[in-house]
Design a protein that fits this description.
14% strand; seven-stranded parallel beta sheet; alpha/beta; Rossmann fold; binds magnesium ion; 226 residues; binds adenosine-5'-triphosphate; 9 helices
Length: 226
């Protein structure tokens, strides 16, 4: 099981949005997926209650139980796990960072978010876990995303090559217990999420698709004699 922690000590950067969207992308790619919601606000858990499907599974947990919850998820066949964390929660965030194979740090291309990213980077460094910043909610046009990329690299952080744009599909999809992949599968937001999922898979050495088991016991048709 591969575990991805979504961290940012700044509030409202898109942690929950990315966790839910990547989890649905992982399920669609054939990976049984679990989201562990460490945020007492329980936004991910609330989203799952408003959802028609019962996957991905969302488990509300306290960081002190993280190891056990991860072990149980693995025993139950989860292949992909996303940990959604709360802002301003250094100790809990550190536990999530230590348990993860990869940390994703969503960051809006705005000066206050960019400055706050150094605190989250320090946690990733302390945990000694690879981390990747992801620019989220970038304006569709203009130089802001490019300027943010330069600033993030300047802080010594690796940056995802995929930028997530500010799009209403990200907001509306969650209202109905969906993600952009279900709300607007052919839209630009869905395309960005699929590309971010693929990039995440590459980072943790997973194929972007996992073949589902198919019927194997079909006998070949007998040839009719002439
Ligand atoms: N790419 C995007 N385009 C448009 N809106 C977005 C995007 N990403 C996030 N949002 C919106 O921004 C708000 C904050 O996002 P979200 O709740 O995912 O952030 P968060 O980091 O989990 O917040 P918190 O720190 O409170 O847990 C939400 O209303 C969400 O719908
Ligand atoms: Mg959140």
């Amino acid at each position: 099981m591969k575990t991805i922690a979504i961290l940012s000590q700044k509030g409202g950067t898109g942690k929950t949005t990315l966790a839910l969207n990547l989890a649905v992308a992982a399920e669609a790619a054939g990976y049984p997926t679990v989201i562990i919601d460490l945020d007492p606000q329980a936004s991910a858990k609330e989203w799952s209650k408003s959802r028609e499907r019962d996957t991905p599974v969302v488990i509300s947990s306290h960081a002190s139980q993280l190891e056990e919850v991860l072990a149980t998820a693995k025993e139950n066949g989860a292949a992909f796990c996303l940990i959604d964390t709360a802002p301003h929660s250094e100790q809990d965030a550190l536990k999530a960072a230590r348990a993860a194979d990869l940390i994703l740090i969503p960051c809006r291309p705005a000066i206050l978010d960019l400055r706050a990213i150094t605190v989250t980077k320090a946690l990733a460094d302390l945990a000694n876990t690879p981390a990747l910043a992801v620019i989220n909610s970038a304006p569709p046009r203009g130089p802001l995303a490019e300027e943010a990329s330069t600033a993030i690299r300047g802080y010594g952080l690796d940056l995802a090559a995929v930028v997530i744009t500010q799009r209403m599909a990200f907001v509306h999809s969650l209202t109905g217990g969906q993600t952009v992949l279900e709300f607007e599968p052919d839209g630009k937001a869905a395309d960005e999420i699929r590309r971010l999922f693929k990039l995440t898979c590459t980072q943790v050495n997973l194929p972007a698709f996992r073949a589902r088991k198919t019927e194997t016991s079909k006998k070949p048709e007998k040839r009719r004699s002439a």
